[in-house]
Amino acid sequence: MTKPSAFTLSLTATLSAALFATLLPATPAAAAAPAPVSIQVQAPALSVDASVQIAAKKIQRNPAKDDVFVNKKYPLSPKKYAPKTVAIQGSNVRLRSSAAKAYNKMAKAAAKDGVKIRAVSGYRSYNRQAELFNYYTRIYGKSYASRISAVPGTSEHQTGLAIDVGNANGACGLQACFANTPVGKWVGKNSHKYGFIMRYGKGQESVTGYSYEPWHFRYLGTSLAKSYKSSGAKSLEAYYGVSGSSPKNNTKNAKGTARTTANLNMRTGAGTGNRVLLTIPRGKSVQLTGSKKSGWYQVRYSSRTGWVSGKYLSSISMPSKPKKESKKSTPKPNTSNAKSAKTSANLNMRTGVGTSHRVVLTIPQGKKVAIRGAKKSGWYPVNYAGKNGWVSGTYLRSFSSSTHSPKSSEPKSSSSASKKTIANLNMRSGAGTSKRVILTIPKGKKVSIRGTKKSGWYPVKYAGKNGWVSGKYLR
């Protein structure tokens, strides 16, 4: 059977108001219903998996706008942008006026439902964000710090449009378990009605660049927040079809390339039920990110990231693995009988072997640690300052086989230098309730007092963390 010659396919599709409300910016209720859309498509170049094309949404880069888009790849410009802010009702937390009004309205609605939202953190200046990021970098290292804190100039808090919220009793403050608390559940379900969205969702770290933060909400305006919610997108990056990582990282993480065999729709997710971001012309080369799902590939094209059907990709090529460079042999210390070693850098002690385990404390550079056992995957079990944990052998030097165990570099706390909590107590980054919550210390736990009292607050140490707590709840 001979192939028919090129022909013109005329397709008329009437789009319902509901579809427009979901995929396009909201229109006034009084506006007339959209007229039928007529689309002329040449058969050989028929767009794959959809007959109706909808223009990709443009991201807002003006920092003065409520819908400004900010992430690691799209920093604020100017980087030290400072908006005008106002204090929200009943708190010294500040937001941009539009966001503050929306938050006050949301908090009032929650209160009617018997849920009391507490504002934890709002606007942060460029300099304040720099202080926080540098603090986390000193404690955890830059890689992990970048997962939990924004590089100065890329923080949504700097826009005055982002707020961290919590429960009035401090339960699960700034922790993943917050999502299952009364406030966490209420804001997760209702925030979009007031123009807010949860910005860093669960399982989206590879997209947003940040760990799951069910307490962090971003104000977009009611119309956009509702559109985002109804789209089913799990991140603003997916909603707009952009990346959350820097251009340098994008290239580094690419897993290969492929070429389109037809005009191919890029979508927000794997499947035709997801929104179209753009149409990639036939014969174009796309970058494969390495993610594949149900026959769909995640790709990058024209600064956008999305999903395309693998049926219409050809010449898929994956980069060959680089040959391992031969390393010059270097003398290694004899650690088989080592009893102690010194740190060659500020070194995190963790609960297990590998960087995925929780940090117990950070051992300063040049400190001696006691080695408690055999090395495992390049990590050593050690004791320091009365704590046991694991450290990377990469940062240990001066191994000693002395039979004498090193003395602890820190004196034991006397009874006068420690106190017990009489309630679940927030440890904060400074003296006062306006400071960021580091963690919540359970009732009845002992804390070490590190210095003198300040305005009724004590500098303390608990679970390897340093911070400030109110003396009202110490005995």
TrEMBL record:
Signal peptide location in the record? 1-31
Q: Which GO BP terms sit in this record?
A: proteolysis
CDD domains in the record: LD-carboxypeptidase (cd14852)
Q: Which InterPro entries match?
A: DD-CPase-like, SH3-like_bac-type, SH3-like_dom_sf, VanY-like_core_dom, VanY/YodJ_core_dom, Zn_M74/Hedgehog-like
Polar residues: bias regions: 334-349
Which intervals hold domain SH3b?
251-317, 336-400, 414-475
Q: What is this protein called?
A: SH3b domain-containing protein
